[in-house]
Amino acid sequence: MKPAPKTFAVKSFGCQMNMYDGDRMAELMLAQGLTPAETADADLIVLNTCHIREKATEKVYSDIGRLRKDARKKHGGSPMIAVAGCVAQAEGAEIVTRAKVDIVVGPQAYHNLPDLVARAARGESALDTDMPVETKFGALPARRRVPPSAFLTVQEGCDKFCTYCVVPYTRGAEVSRGWQQIVDEAKALVDAGARELTLLGQNVNAWTDGPRGLHHLIAELDRIDGLARIRYTTSHPNDMTQGLIDAHRDIEKLMPFLHLPVQSGSNRILKSMNRSHSRDSYLRLLERVVAARPDIALSGDFIVGFPGETEADFRDTLSLVDEIGCAQAFSFKYSPRPGTPAAQMDDQIAPEEMDERLQRLQAALNRDQAAFNANTLGRRCQVLIERKGKLPGQMLGKSPWLQSIHLLTDAGIGDLVEVDIVRADPNSLSGVERISAAA
After folding, report:
1. What region holds the MTTase N-terminal domain (predicted)?
2. What's the predicted TM-score (pTM) here?
3. Between residues 69 and 281, which one has the greater pLDDT?
4. Do the annotations mark residue 381 as ligand-binding?
5. What are phi and psi of 370, to 5 degrees?
């Protein structure tokens, strides 16, 4: 048994949905009267884990040991530790047996965290890896004050079963939240200070509510007073409807940015990955998007070193990168995830070969990002101020194309300002304010 905690810390890893889940778990603890604290000082530490990266499970166990060591060194205590998220879902009771943690809770059950904390304090078993998605959202507390750019989960899970991906096993089948529940939360976020909402889902553009698709939902959110910007991520090429493409043309609040993972430029590798698109269908889809919104910034995900990938396959990926011209991108070395079909495939690629290919790929992606930023030089755009910079009077914000922008301004966090871009670096921009902050 341990004393009921009075302070807490939530440490989230991985994707934006994990960041959203981490915020909601923090709100649950606040609603129970617990006080936020630094990790080393907290009575309860929640590790909100991600299972996508290589050796994710081992890193969790290492982090647990380090946290306990830090606590003993600082105040001689032993915090209550909860493992949440996708590693918790995948490992389940094994984490309790191996690491002797107090609580294990999956990503669809964290609404039960207060009860699990109480059970752990009584010395009882506190493990929950059930997947009742709608129950989770219905049980979460009302949103408190939020940053100017906030996340809003609208869809969870995946039915695509890409051969390298663990998400269908840790997040479950595709489930869409209800229309009114999303709209109500969006309004609450705006009332709490959000000016920009990013709609989240493992396949966010697969969101449906009866005959309504994501573009209908975006059109409804467009009507919310005080909401200035709408984004969404992550999308799947199969679910990119013409209605959603047209929304980029017709809805001013929908920002000109699209993250659309492709993973490989080789049709042979795409088939082995169980990706349902081809290189050509992906490029034709992007042509339709650009035709609807010519200034849109494109982003993607790329994997190198998938089992069986030859040098010719990899060159197909490089040539696809050349054709797309990504404003941003994420690139990864393939890593086998336990239980996925790709982990059992022959022709696993040597680590040093994957390293070399990733360096070549990232050089091309960095080149294209620098070129996109350079093409922004001299443009005027609105910037949403998100936080203070390191210099006196400096603020940081995001352009419509999701670029980080530094500027000197009297505007406050949450303001929208008109800015002329006067400097373009590979990873960020600098701007000069042209008019006073918009209300």
Report:
1. 6-122
2. 0.87
3. 281
4. no
5. -60, -40
